[in-house]
């Protein structure tokens, strides 16, 4: 049985050990920190997209203004860098994804791949309406697949981050499985997104930026822990 004195020593020793390990890990990560490659910096500069960076937040946003349209691209950097999609799905879910979204096999290559959700909202500033587009991004080949589309009379609902707005969005009809649409409509919607810059180059940038931001957030997280302990 520990005495009061030995308990205090153990308490202080555990705190000291943690401080030492945190300091070492933080120094290593700072020395190993990296930024976007010049190729990705150049792409961003020419793409028209701007990064809306909020520290200590894993949901990233890119924004581009195009005439009377404002394009918002949202993605979770942790999901992209750390979460293989297949680990969150069982075999029944795999088959459901194939059956509901991809009778022709377009999404089949995404199953058992590392994929992430990317949400696009395109505002029409003329009447304040919006279209919300749920996309699946393959991290291995940077390709997008359309998973659903929703129309919003008021863009505020599409863009709001409140829990109430999110619940309302979940209840909206987002269309039939994309592969069930007429082929001409599928091609037209895909072409529309490509014309707005929703393409493989954007997918490549999202993956690269997510890696950088996640690393920066980790350094910030370690810094805050070190301050506390």
Automatic annotation (TrEMBL):
One of its GO terms (cellular component) is mitochondrial matrix. GO terms for biological process: aerobic respiration; cytosolic ribosome assembly; mitochondrial large ribosomal subunit assembly. GO terms for molecular function: mitochondrial ribosome binding. InterPro entries: MAM33 (IPR003428), MAM33_sf (IPR036561). Signal peptide: none annotated. Gene3D superfamilies: Mitochondrial glycoprotein. This is Mitochondrial acidic protein MAM33. It comes from Pachysolen tannophilus NRRL Y-2460.
């Amino acid at each position: 049985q520990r005495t009061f004195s030995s308990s205090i020593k153990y308490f202080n020793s555990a705190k000291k050990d943690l401080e030492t390990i945190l300091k070492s890990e933080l120094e290593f990560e700072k020395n190993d920190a990296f930024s976007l490659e010049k190729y990705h910096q150049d792409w961003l500069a020419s793409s028209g997209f701007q990064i809306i960076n909020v520290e200590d937040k894993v949901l990233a946003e890119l924004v581009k203004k195009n005439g009377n349209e404002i394009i918002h691209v949202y993605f979770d950097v942790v999901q992209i860098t750390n979460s293989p999609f297949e680990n969150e799905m069982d075999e029944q879910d795999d088959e459901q994804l194939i059956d509901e979204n991809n009778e022709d096999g377009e999404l089949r290559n995404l199953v058992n791949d590392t994929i992430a959700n990317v949400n696009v909202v395109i505002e029409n500033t003329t009447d304040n309406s919006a279209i919300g587009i749920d996309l699946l991004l393959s991290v291995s080949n940077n390709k997008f697949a359309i998973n659903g589309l929703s129309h919003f009379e008021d863009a505020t609902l599409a863009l709001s981050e409140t829990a109430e707005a999110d619940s309302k969005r979940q209840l909206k009809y987002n269309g039939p499985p994309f592969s069930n649409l007429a082929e001409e409509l599928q091609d037209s919607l895909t072409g529309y997104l490509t014309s707005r810059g929703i393409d493989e180059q954007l997918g490549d940038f999202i993956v690269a930026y997510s890696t950088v931001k996640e690393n920066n957030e980790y350094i910030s997280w370690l810094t805050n822990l070190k301050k506390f302990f």
